[in-house]
């Protein structure tokens, strides 16, 4: 079994995908590979995308889960913080899809890698801690 793939997410309609493309700069800014925290207004913008339409909600989740696969601690941490914010502000559809794909978050919870020259292992610990906070999502069937 290779890496997780998001095959459980249905393909979103093309017009939703095209609409979503215009949101990518916002998302890339919110999950940039640096230690500048994601500004509060971006969390709100990103949560709004999930309410636009079921298709854009899907595109958003796909994008965030793809970003979560990034090897950068900064990116993982920002994505996890956005996902945490989405737990209270995202659309109900986004949350349902997130629950189905919670294995991605569990993978981040055991994330480790070579110590950072500047931060040592502290960033990995932050990522794991953020992932564990995001993981007690109610499981389907509970």
Give, in order, the helices and strands: HHHHHHHH
Q: Which overall shape is indicated by the principal axes computed on the Cα atoms?
A: globular
Cα gyration radius (Å)? 15 Å
The residue fraction in helices comes out at 55-70%
Low-confidence stretches: 1-7, 138-142
Share of β-strand residues? under 5%
DSSP strand count? 0
Biggest β-sheet strands, sense, barrel:
none
N-C termini distance: 27 Å
Mean pLDDT: 83
Report the total helices: 8
By helix and strand content, what is the structural category?
Answer: mainly alpha
Record keyword descriptors for this entry.
single chain, 142 residues, 8 helices, disordered N terminus, TEPSIN, AP-4 complex accessory subunit Tepsin
How would you describe the overall organization of this protein?
This is AP-4 complex accessory subunit Tepsin. It is found in: Cytoplasm, Cytosol; Cytoplasmic vesicle; Golgi apparatus, trans-Golgi network membrane. Helices cover 63% and strands 0% of the residues. It has 142 residues and is mainly α. The chain is globular, with a radius of gyration of 15 Å.
How would you summarize what this structure contains?
It is built from eight helices and no strands. With 142 residues, the chain is mostly helical.
How do the helices and strands line up, and which of them pair or pack?
Blueprint: H1 14-21, H2 24-30, H3 40-52, H4 54-68, H5 73-89, H6 92-100, H7 103-109, H8 122-134
Helix pairs in contact: 1-4, 2-3, 3-4, 3-5, 4-5, 4-6, 5-8, 7-8
């Amino acid at each position: 079994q290779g890496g997780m793939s998001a095959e459980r997410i249905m393909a979103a309609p093309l017009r939703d995908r095209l609409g979503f493309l215009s949101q990518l700069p916002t998302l890339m800014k919110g999950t940039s590979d640096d230690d500048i925290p994601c500004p509060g207004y971006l969390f709100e913008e990103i949560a709004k995308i999930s309410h636009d339409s079921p298709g854009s909600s899907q595109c958003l989740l796909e994008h965030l889960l793809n970003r979560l696969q990034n090897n950068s601690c900064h990116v993982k941490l920002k994505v996890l913080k956005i996902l945490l914010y989405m737990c209270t502000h995202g659309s109900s559809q986004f949350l349902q899809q997130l629950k189905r794909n919670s294995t991605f978050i569990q993978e981040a919870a055991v994330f480790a890698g070579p110590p950072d020259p500047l931060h040592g292992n502290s960033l990995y610990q932050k990522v794991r801690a953020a992932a564990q906070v995001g993981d007690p999502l109610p499981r389907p069937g509970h």
